[in-house]
Amino acid sequence: MENLATTKMSSKGQVVIPEGIRKRLNLKTGARFVVVGDNDVVILKNITPPLIEEFEDLIAKARKAGQQAGLKETDIKEAILKVRAT
């Protein structure tokens, strides 16, 4: 299993992730990353999109919390308009 490899950065700032690591982590074309840089350390963290079921659960929890707080749909629309105006 390949945990360590070397690579270099191109003139455009592009870095190639070695094939063995891409395969082991199942990284595909278009994979997205959060990049963290601190002193001489650069970390790439793969971002995986959540499943639609996770969104459905989140939306259900938000609706329940809104109902318990007594919010109406018009309250939400007004809040969105207010935030967008700033």
Explain what the structure shows.
The protein has helices at residues 19-24, 52-68, 73-85, and strands at 32-38, 41-47. The chain has 86 residues and is of the alpha+beta class. The chain has two domains: 1-48, Pemi-like Protein 1, Chain: D (Ribbon); 52-85, no CATH class. It has a two-stranded antiparallel sheet with strand order 1-2. The longest helix has 17 residues, at 52-68. It is elongated.
Principal-axes shape call: elongated
Question: What is the oligomeric state here?
Answer: single chain
Q: What radius of gyration results from the CA coordinates?
A: 21 Å
The helix-and-strand class reads: alpha+beta
CATH class wording of the largest domain: Mainly Beta
Strand-residue proportion: 15-25%
CATH third-level topology of the largest domain: Pemi-like Protein 1, Chain: D
Number of strands: 2
Unreliable stretches, pLDDT < 50, 5 or more residues? Answer: none
In CATH terms, what is the architecture of the largest domain? Ribbon
**Total domain modules:** 2
What proportion of the residues is helical, as a percent range?
Answer: 40-55%
| String of helices and strands | HEEHH
Mean pLDDT: 90
Q: Give the termini separation.
A: 51 Å
Count of helix runs = 3
Main beta sheet strand tally, sense and closure: 2 strands, antiparallel
Side-by-side strand order of the widest sheet: 1-2
